[in-house]
Design brief:
The chain is mainly alpha-helical and 100 residues long. The protein is 84% helix and 0% strand.
């Protein structure tokens, strides 16, 4: 195991921990009917902001680990995916212009 794999493993672990914590926070606020309860509107806004921040950080860490692994081990596939995305985007543009 080299340092790149270790960094990606730690990054993905922290990302999974952040996603879990965000989901857990929203679950603990629910009552037996599944409705979230807040003491005030301010606490609701702050809680939702914190949950969405944790979720974005978590998904960003997991996505970052995947991108690092793709660049490290499958850069050819990454370039091929970018070329295919550009080709499909150009094809969609061409068809949209033909329809007009």
């Amino acid at each position: 195991m080299n340092s790149t794999n270790l960094i990606c493993l730690v990054l993905a672990g922290f990302g999974a921990l952040f996603v879990y914590q965000s989901k857990r926070r929203s679950f603990t606020r629910t009552n037996w009917l599944g409705i979230e309860q807040f003491s005030s509107y301010r606490s609701k806004v702050l809680s939702k902001l914190m949950d969405s921040t944790l979720l974005a950080i978590g998904y960003g860490c997991v996505g970052g680990a995947l991108v690092i692994l793709l660049v490290e081990y499958a850069s050819e596939y990454l370039v091929m995916g970018a070329i295919l995305w550009i080709a499909l985007w150009l094809d969609d543009e061409w068809h949209a212009r033909r329809k007009q």
